[in-house]
């Protein structure tokens, strides 16, 4: 039995941080970072059956073209992803009454829809990026046993290419779900490696009043290649989503609307339009699967 200190439940039986019970979530789940973006997706739904919010975790479940879908905000960063995916998995794969893992496990479909800046000059603003791999620079996933799901060759190649300081922890690399990639892919999608940082400023090479450990990291990352894959963008969730999903047996895919290009210094003239186009495209693909 899983102890109450390890799997914490609220007085009403819902999981502690998400404030959800098993019946509240669908098999297909869309992640967004910003709680205000949840309704930017569910505004396209035919109906909404459930809505709740606790802290930065806002959840709505409803119907889109006959398909039951849950939309959830995760907040920012890999630490939040650790909470969200572990608690979602508990909802479907642990009997909350007996605190025992179920014999028959459920695999969720998890798609992240986010915004990001491109690191490559030829990936313009208002385009879409599908993360073929998540490259974790954050070290969160190293708390788990990940060798069976990570790409050790890519990790070692990245460490060598960037002269990575291992005092920051070894980067990890996890592939997306091939199943979801086939459902969602189109000619509009750029594909590559999405780097996941553990912070917004220093960990992404931004300098305000503090010097950073490696001021050349971003430019070195820009020209890293592994096979046909290069680093397309930098954000704060994808690798953690891929890693925990792979370990727990869920399918995960991360999509980003590119609203800035850090190589050219440009920003989208209408970022909301790009995000709405990615949302409707993804919803229609899910509804038709």
From TrEMBL:
Pfam families tied to this protein: PNP_UDP_1
Domain of life: Bacteria
A cellular component term, taken from the record's GO annotations: cytosol
Reaction(s) the record says it catalyses: uridine + phosphate = alpha-D-ribose 1-phosphate + uracil
GO molecular function: purine-nucleoside phosphorylase activity; uridine phosphorylase activity
Enzyme Commission code: 2.4.2.3
Protein name: Uridine phosphorylase
Native organism taxonomy: Bacteria, Pseudomonadati, Bacteroidota, Flavobacteriia, Flavobacteriales
